[in-house]
Give the backbone structure.
Amino acid sequence: MDDDALLEVEGPLMGMITPAVVLETTDTLSAPEAKVQRQDGAVDEEVEAPQGYGTFFRPPAGSRCLLLSPLASPEHRVMIGAHHGQYRPVMTCEEGEGGLYGLQGWVLFVDAAGVLHLGGGAGRFNGEIGRASCRERV
């Protein structure tokens, strides 16, 4: 491939994944929609944040995310991986641990042994509601 052909492809490819910050979001009853500011300072409005079936999370303003441009088309950017460090529960997860949290802390937590804690648990969180455990491996 010659240099001119490479330059033709390089521009669109460079814009396919762009870091951004969420300025505001709305609930469209389909997927969250966001107004975001890209790393270069440009602002994109009505950026969809598609999510997996059965889940819905509306990221707060200030969340960092990645914008993807399928087929290198800036008209159809989508937002993925929104996260906001200020709202993550203050604790270090051990390898293999993690869960779901909201603005008020852990909602569901899975410890390294595979025990599911609703509302916290394992003696490291306040407000444990219940515990469930699956001892058999599938």
Observations:
- Residues 12 and 34 are 23 Å apart (CA to CA).
- The mean pLDDT is 79.
- Helices lie at 3-14.
- The first strand starts at residue 17 and ends at 27.
